[in-house]
Design a protein that fits this description.
The complex is a heterodimer of chains A (279) and B (370). Chain A has 14 helices and no strands. Chain A is mainly α. Chain A has a single domain, classed as Orthogonal Bundle (MetI-like fold), CATH 1.10.3720. In chain A, helix 4 packs across helix 11 and helix 9 packs across helix 11. The longest helix of chain A is centred in the first third of the chain and has 34 residues. In chain B, helix 2 packs parallel to helix 4 and helix 3 crosses helix 4. Chain B has 9 helices and 21 strands. Classes of the chains: A mainly alpha (279), B alpha+beta (370).
């Protein structure tokens, strides 16, 4: 056994070293902090835990967070594909500039984004004033939260879909055309199925990011309990009131929810990727 | 269905892919477009399919103008070099695609589609693989799926772009034989692109030799091999030796050798070239009748059934090759550095056109007696 493993060693040795580092790294940064979270939450009795979670204010904030994050991720899934399509398929002046802009929500401190969005979408802002004429309030409503979450989630879908589109074999489209498929049919039946795994990944990333987003949302949401209060803010509030157990209880729920979502996404990926499994 | 290409010119940003190409593909024939890469053969194929638009000229299917018709309406079967199968669909769905995307009115029923797909799967000898994905198939199998997919829509004719280019030699030979058989069975017009002269010769009824965006010659494999229209065709169809010389009063001089030809123009001395296949070179230890020149053996490469000799002419210093059967070679008892007599046989002479007004040198073939 030993001789076999030494014979199979690659040109770059160091499995032990790199693996050890990976385990320590992940433990210190991810596993230990997360398990402490559970530990902290377990100092509460079950009754207290359920009581904290089922509080009206907590439930309302979870609803606001999940609904706005989901809708923002949906928005990004559609328009992210569009942006990726434009960037991958066409040559035009300023393409590199637009390509760079896509990453801005990554690079910008989220608070800056939040303040900028608030000033534009507030009732006296550039866009907010026209929306107000129509009787639509954007800032300080769930609509505003959705705008902020769409902003911070934009790069995820674009950056996951773009490489897939760049590697796309144009001959498949041509093949579909010679077989008599209309453009719409070609897009729906040939191109979209190929993009779907990347779109779902991007959607999941954008959704997860939106659920945890704090910086940009607190400015535009107005933070009204039961109406525009998001989960991360509520956790923050509880911490400021030294209610550590309550904060960790909510955090635990979010953690479990994230886990379940990851599982679902992975399952979907596996289902869709079946055709590539044999490669 | 016959295909007529009339005066097609196609240029891209900085080069012209096709220059006034005209071509007639008769119904039911298996035709090869043969040429080196960049000769415009694939462009021509894509133009016929409607995947590209010509700058000028027309494309007719069975006398009907199709130049401005959309690729979707041309009903052409096209097989891509790298198959372009839909990776996320099973083999069944790939083959059924062309039928299932039809509008509701013209779409066959599910049962009809199923029957048709299974019929095609049997035709391409892949029944039993209907529910696999393309990634689970070998290259040769994928190629056959691509063919079945193209045949499913009952195309007017088949266009194949380097159909066997990406396959290894053995599979390639099998598929060639199979395609030939398929052609006999279906009687469909098939036009395929290849850069492999052997493939073209073996498969095609007619070979269209292309170079630099032009058609150099159209003919049966026999014709283009034995009566090549110009030096390009001659040298593209196999190994070749080239001897440079001059022509005067109907006599071609290549070094010490002189040949009588039927050249009748009396326009002084002109450059001429003589081409000769290595297997036509005859080697002897003593000069006999005919055009013998002396040469020294530079290198000997035994290649199984034949032996190839690299030779240098003593009179002109030109290098050339000879191919002998192994038996003849051992009879000769020659080795490297030995000097032998070489009979120049079966040369094809071309004279650079005296009226060289065209930018491209034109060559006129002349007959010589041996």
């Amino acid at each position: 056994m030993k001789s076999k493993s030494s014979r199979n060693r690659g040109f770059l040795p160091g499995f032990g070293l790199t693996m050890g580092y990976t385990v320590i790294y992940l433990s210190l940064l991810v596993l230990i902090p997360l398990s402490v979270l559970f530990l902290k939450a377990s100092t509460m009795s079950w009754g207290e835990f359920v009581g904290t979670i089922l509080d009206d204010r907590v439930l309302a904030s979870i609803r606001v967070s999940v609904v706005t994050s989901f809708l923002a991720a949906c928005m990004n899934a559609v328009f992210g594909v569009l942006v990726a399509w434009v960037l991958a398929r066409y040559q035009f002046v300023g393409k590199r500039f637009i390509d760079g802009i896509v990453d801005l929500p990554f690079a910008l401190p989220t608070a800056v984004g939040g303040i900028a969005l608030t000033s534009i979408y507030a009732e006296n802002g550039w866009i907010g004033q026209y929306a107000a004429e129509w009787g639509i309030k954007i800032a300080y409503t769930p609509l505003g939260i959705w705008v902020a979450l769409t902003f911070i989630g934009l790069p995820f879908v674009v950056r996951t879909v773009q490489p897939v589109l760049q590697d796309w074999d144009l001959q498949m489209e041509e093949a579909a055309a010679t077989l008599g498929a209309t453009r719409w049919n070609t897009f729906i039946r040939v191109i979209l199925p190929h993009l779907l795994p990347a779109v779902i990944t991007g959607f999941a990333l954008a959704f997860a990011r939106a659920l945890g987003e704090y910086g940009s949302v607190v400015f535009i949401s107005g933070n009204m309990p039961l109406k525009t209060e998001i989960v991360p803010l509520l956790i923050m509030t509880k911490l400021e009131q030294f209610d550590y157990a309550g904060a960790t209880a909510i955090a635990t729920v979010m953690l479990v929810a994230s886990f379940i979502m990851l599982l679902i996404i992975n399952y979907l990926q596996w289902r869709i990727n079946k055709f590539d499994a044999a490669r | 269905m016959s295909i007529e290409v009339v005066n097609i010119t196609k240029s891209y940003k900085n080069f012209t892919a096709l220059k006034e190409v005209s071509l007639h593909i008769p119904e039911g024939e298996l035709v090869a477009l043969l040429g080196p890469s960049g000769s415009g053969k694939t462009t021509l194929l894509r133009l016929i399919a409607g995947l590209e638009q010509p700058d000028t000229g027309a494309i007719l299917f069975h006398g009907e103008d199709n130049t401005n018709r959309d690729v979707r309406e041309r009903q052409v079967g096209f097989v891509f070099q790298h198959y372009a199968l839909f990776r996320h669909m099973t083999i069944f769905d790939n083959i059924a695609f062309g039928l299932s995307v039809r509008s509701r009115k013209t779409r066959p029923s599910k049962q009809e589609i199923k029957e048709r797909v299974h019929l095609l799967l049997r035709l391409v000898q892949l029944d039993g693989l209907a529910h696999r994905y393309p990634s689970q198939l070998s290259g040769g199998q994928r190629q056959r799926v691509a063919l079945a997919r193209a045949l499913a829509v009952e195309p007017k004719f088949l266009l194949l772009d380097e159909p066997f280019g990406a396959l290894d030699t053995k599979v390639r030979q099998e598929l060639r034989r199979w395609l030939r058989h398929l052609h006999e069975k279906l009687g469909l017009t098939i036009l395929f692109v290849t850069h492999d002269q052997e493939e073209a010769m073996e498969l095609a009824d007619q070979v269209v030799v292309m170079n630099e965006g032009r058609v150099e010659q159209v003919g049966s494999p026999e014709e283009i091999y034995h009566l090549p229209a110009n030096p390009f065709v001659y040298s593209f169809l196999g190994r070749v030796n080239l001897f440079r010389g001059r022509i005067r009063d109907g006599k071609v001089r290549l070094g010490e050798a002189e040949f009588e030809t039927e050249w009748e123009h009396n326009s002084g001395e002109l450059p001429a070239v003589g081409y000769m296949r290595p297997h036509d070179v005859e080697i002897a230890l003593a000069p006999g009748d005919g055009h013998f020149v002396q040469a020294r053996i530079q290198h000997i490469s035994p290649l199984g059934p034949i032996v190839r000799l690299d030779l240098r002419r003593l009179d002109t210093d030109e290098l050339f090759e000879a191919e002998l059967s192994h038996q003849r070679f051992s009879e000769l008892h020659v080795e490297e550095k030995s000097t032998v007599f070489v009979k120049l046989n079966n040369l094809s002479f071309y004279v650079e056109s005296p009226a060289a007004t065209t930018p491209r040198p034109t060559f006129l073939p002349i007959q010589a007696s041996f």
